[in-house]
Amino acid sequence: MINYNINKILVAIDFSPASLNALDTAVAMANRHAAAILLVNVVEIAGLAGFTGDNQVSTEEMKAMTQHSEEHLRKLQHSIKARYIMPCEIIAVAGGVSSSIIQICRDQNADIVVIGAHGSSGYRDSVIGSNAFNVIKNAVCPVLTIPEKKKYESFKKILFPVRPVPHALQKYDFVQKMVSKDDATLKVLGLARDGAEDIDLVKTLTARLKEKLEEDHVEAATYYKVGENMEEEVVKIASLMGADLIVLTAENDSLYDQLIVGTYTRHVINHAHLPVLCIKPMEESVEEEELHYDGGAGLQQMSVL
Length: 305
Description:
Helix content is 43%, strand content 20%. The protein is an alpha/beta fold. It has two domains: 8-146, 3-Layer(aba) Sandwich (Rossmann fold), CATH 3.40.50.620; 157-289, HUPs (Rossmann fold, 3-Layer(aba) Sandwich), CATH 3.40.50.620. Strands 3-2-1-4-5-10-9-6-7-8 form a ten-stranded mixed β-sheet, sandwiched between helices. Helix 4 (97-107) packs parallel to helix 5 and helix 8 (230-241) runs parallel beside helix 9 (263-272). The two termini are 22 Å apart.
């Protein structure tokens, strides 16, 4: 059985305002879940080469920059421990940013990664950086992106879009822990393209989800939207509802599996200006098999996204 408790929160730090703002959200989350914080800074080797004006970086230069990073992390660590009295560890490494974060996440058994939506990489405010997207795509645990300039002490209105794609219950089971700790309301949004079969599939799926919500005593409301451009509808409805968190399933585009995160996920993160929790599907569990529908509509491995 997969453990969906949040016991260790990895926070990617590049010392930009966006990453420090994400740290504030992570610390508040750690308080609610009685979790530990792991601060990670990656000294990018390519960045070091540009800093020194040389194509190669010596071992001594790399070590000095990593030690400098560790000193800054230690200051944050001491501040967190003194103010919040919670476990906090630090890791400073040199390497590729996203690949290092992904590996540390795996090695340290992190339960969630919290990362600023816009770091120090030079991307404009409306476009998330490539490092964050690579982490979303490849991390073994959920990834929470936090936009710059706004504080999120908790999440009270969580938008939970539903459309027929693989893997449903895994995402809900993780989010249910957050709903419970935050005393939040779940806004379920059924999304279907115009067509009786698609609409019936989404209604069937939301009905199954409703059973879980009632079983877990989760306060929720369900809405439906029929049409095209689902990603645009999610962004628009999140704003109208006053949502403070959107939950998505992180999936790759089928034609470009090794290149990009799905366009649906990318559009929502880039345009919502809200925290977005991306949960990568794991292997199908026994619970998910219960969602299979053998009727004429052919609902199989349908999911919440």
